[in-house]
From TrEMBL:
Residue ranges of every copy of the GGDEF domain listed in the record: 307-441
Species whose genome carries this gene: Streptomyces bullii
Domain PAC intervals: 225-277
Residue ranges occupied by any EAL domain in the UniProt entry: 450-712
Family matches, as SUPFAM superfamilies: EAL domain-like, Nucleotide cyclase, PYP-like sensor domain (PAS domain)
Pfam families noted in UniProt: EAL (PF00563), GGDEF (PF00990), PAS (PF00989)
InterPro entries to which the protein is assigned, alphabetical: Biofilm_reg_signaling, EAL_dom, EAL_sf, GGDEF_dom, Nucleotide_cyclase, PAC, PAS, PAS-assoc_C
Protein name: Bifunctional diguanylate cyclase/phosphodiesterase
Coiled-coil spans in chain: none
SMART domains: EAL, GGDEF, PAC, PAS
Record domain PAS: where: 151-221
Length: 714
């Protein structure tokens, strides 16, 4: 057994050895194979660097292709063997531990660039030969009679020995002379080729200007022209060439002959087509890939007036479960079957299906009537996924979520269309999946804003964009201010002041709620200390309490108790001046581990309030085991009390809750008090404290100073 190379340099040399052995037999060089290997080693090193570079540089691949020509590897077979060797061994020996799929894709692009560089260098070499031939032809006409024989001999040597096809014809298009290379290109005898007329060599793929340039040349208006042209061979195959035609004049300057120089580019064209296909199609499913799809989408969006487009963005529901439970091989077979079904759904003109990556597919339809067609296309896709797919003897049910975007061409960029489709697809997935949704500009705008807020949250706290407003808590018995609830706000640079409903869910989703909540607690406790100091201590105003909301994420954070203790101690505030509000829904079914931090805080003297009570459908008997001292009654129970007479059912419910709370030694706070009649009714029912716009809206801390001071001084 042969040991594998030890280090990157050893692996690189091994790759160069394999490369040299493959290419050396078809290389015209006087070097030995080891010497030739030393010539290839720098090229191999450039390929290795290009494969591992942070950003792809096609110039490196083109330079390696040109380097092959410089090393005398001009035979097309040398390029073919080189590309086969790079395809098979470059990632293996030079790929390292990178993402194999990404390395394979980059390797394919390197091959494409190498082929382009090889072709460009070979073309430069060919053009140099063409120039030499043209110069020899011109010299053959201009020499004096005494040197005619020698000049013709030199021209004949170049004419017969050239690797490119050369033919001469008169101005009527009758072929007079051809060399061996041209005979081999066409697969004809010299007699058969000379019996043809140039004007007979038309082909459906001729560029529009080809024959116009020819007419200008034979009429003497043009000295030469260069085009890419196809010819039919006798066996029906197509010969692709780079064709240069020059006009030859007599000693008096009159047009006399036309000289054609042909470079056979058939193999190179086929190679480029193959590399183009690999670069624009998904290796697993054979569908067009993201690159090809964006080209088609850009073309569709750039269509003329009256044209429209429709896009279906599909993501499979639960595909990760298949990969995790059955393995990636089974997942790949599932994707191949899904791709085949999707391909069968988009067969009409103007329709295509592509795979963007993973389990994400797109279907595109174009034309003047895509409003109806895109809905029908989405329905066909959903129906195609109904039948189970058999993988390794298992019948797998496949479902998908589709986001649909439809509209006129020319109004949006490809990136904007795909973003809208992606947002809409996730909206369908959030609604339960196995469905399709139509794009909604307002929903898109909300999602984009939500994403922008999410990305801006981490730095917003660092830049000090958050601030706190305080809403007073008023005792219903005597109307005195007993404290305030701290309500955080975000002063966004673009969107202005945002309420907590706009960003707290995002902070909880990203985990930023923990540092944000700690900041709110610290600022609120510091503000409570300032209130005490500004107004001569607690005796002047009574014991003002600060209420701070805790999110479910903060409840499970291991540092909750210690952070609270540290903040209170640094501020010099007693624990009984702090009340932590926890929503009822966060404590439904809570086990002892979750309740333990709250119990420790309650034992220290911190009040715990059960916020939004009555919305969580909790068992009232659970109140006995919760470490709470205050119930905050949700405003939905007291809204009817804003009118007279109040709903008697609501009155009974509130009366029952207050009675139950007081029997458990719990105080009752009511939110959303907006009228005096409502406040009086709640006082009659026995509620302890209240807050709402009737007393004061949330505002700066100075507002609470004023309210508390007025209350204290009468």
């Amino acid at each position: 057994m042969i040991a594998e190379p030890d280090g990157p340099e050893d692996r690189l040399r091994r790759f160069a050895t394999i490369w040299s052995r493959a290419v050396y037999p078809v290389t015209s060089t006087s070097s030995t194979r080891p010497q030739f290997e030393d010539q290839l080693l720098p090229l191999a090193r450039r390929l290795s660097r290009a494969l591992a570079a942070r950003s792809f540089d096609a110039e490196e691949g083109r330079a390696v292709g040109a380097g092959l020509v410089a090393a005398h590897c001009t035979d097309p077979e040398a390029l073919s063997r080189t590309l086969d060797c790079v395809d098979a061994y470059l990632v293996l020996y030079c790929g390292g531990d990178g993402d194999q799929e990404d390395l394979r894709a980059r390797c394919a692009r390197l091959q494409h660039a190498m082929a382009a560089g090889f072709a460009g260098a070979l073309r430069q070499r060919t053009l140099a030969e063409q120039e030499s031939i043209a110069q020899a032809a011109l010299q053959a006409q201009g020499v004096v009679a005494q040197a005619l024989h020698a000049t013709e001999a030199r021209f004949r040597a170049v004419f017969e020995g050239a690797a490119i096809g050369i033919g001469m014809a008169d101005l009527e298009g009758n072929i007079l002379q051809v060399n061996g290379a041209m005979l081999r290109m066409f697969g004809l005898t010299e007699q058969a080729l000379r019996s043809r007329n140039v004007r007979e060599w038309t082909h459906p793929d001729d560029a529009p200007q080809t024959w116009r340039l020819y007419d200008e040349l034979v009429s003497g208006e043009r000295e030469h022209y260069h085009v890419e042209k196809a010819f039919y061979r006798p066996d029906g195959t197509v010969l692709w060439t780079n064709l240069t035609v020059s006009l030859l004049r007599d000693p008096d300057g009159n047009p006399q002959y036309q000289l054609a120089l042909m470079e056979d580019t058939t193999e190179r064209r086929l190679l480029n087509l193959r590399l183009r296909y690999e670069a624009t199609h998904d290796a697993l499913t054979g569908l067009p890939n993201r690159t090809f799809f964006f080209e088609r989408l850009e073309k569709a969006l750039g269509a003329g007036e009256g044209q429209r487009f429709g896009l279906c963005y599909l993501d499979l529901d639960g595909f990760k479960t298949v990969n995790d439970s059955l393995g990636h091989s089974a997942g790949d077979r599932l994707l191949v079957e899904v791709a085949d079904r999707l391909q069968a759904c988009a067969t009409a003109p103007g329709e295509m299906v592509a795979r963007l990556g993973g389990d994400e597919f797109v279907a595109l339809t174009t034309g003047p009537d895509t409003q109806r067609k895109v809905d029908e296309l989405a329905a066909r896709i959903m129906n195609a996924l109904l039948a189970p797919i058999s993988v390794d003897g298992r019948e797998l049910t496949v479902r998908g979520s589709i986001g649909i975007v439809e509209g006129p061409a020319g109004e949006r960029s490809p990136a904007e269309v795909l973003r809208s489709a992606d947002i809409t697809m996730y909206r369908a997935k959030s609604a339960g999946g196995n469905r399709f949704e139509l794009a909604d500009p307002e929903a898109d705008a909300r999602a984009i804003t939500r994403h922008g807020l999410t990305t801006a949250l981490p730095t917003a706290l660092e830049r000090g964009e958050f601030f706190i407003e305080y809403q007073p808590l008023v005792h219903l018995g005597d109307g005195s201010v007993r404290g305030a609830e701290a309500l955080v706000r975000w002063l966004h640079p673009q969107h202005g002041v945002l309420g907590p409903d706009r960003f707290i869910p995002l902070a909880e989703h990203t985990g930023l709620i923990v540092p944000l909540g700690r900041w709110v607690l610290e600022e609120s406790v510091r503000q409570a200390r300032e209130w005490r100091e500004l107004h001569g201590g607690a005796e002047a105003l009574g014991p003002l309490r600060i209420n701070v909301n805790l999110s479910p994420c903060q409840l499970t954070h291991p540092g909750l108790v210690q952070d609270t203790v540290d903040i209170l101690e640094r501020a010099g505030v007693e624990p009984h001046a702090l009340c932590l509000e926890v929503t009822e829904s966060a404590l439904i079914g809570a086990d002892d581990d979750l309740l333990k931090p709250l119990r420790r805080l309650a034992e220290m003297g911190v009040d715990i309030a059960l916020d939004d009570f009555g919305t969580g459908y909790s068992n009232l008997a659970n109140l006995r085991r919760l470490p709470v001292s205050i119930l905050k009654l949700d405003r939905s129970f007291t809204q009817s009390m804003q009118q007279f007479p109040a709903d008697p059912v609501d009155l009974k419910i509130v009366e029952g809750i207050v009675s139950l709370a007081h029997s458990l030694d719990l105080a009752v706070t009511v939110e959303g008090v907006e009228t005096g009649a409502q406040a009086e009714q709640l006082r009659t029912l026995g509620c302890d404290t209240a807050q709402g716009w009737y007393y004061a809206r949330p505002g700066p801390p100075e507002r609470l100073h004023e309210l508390a001071l007025v209350d204290a001084t009468g």
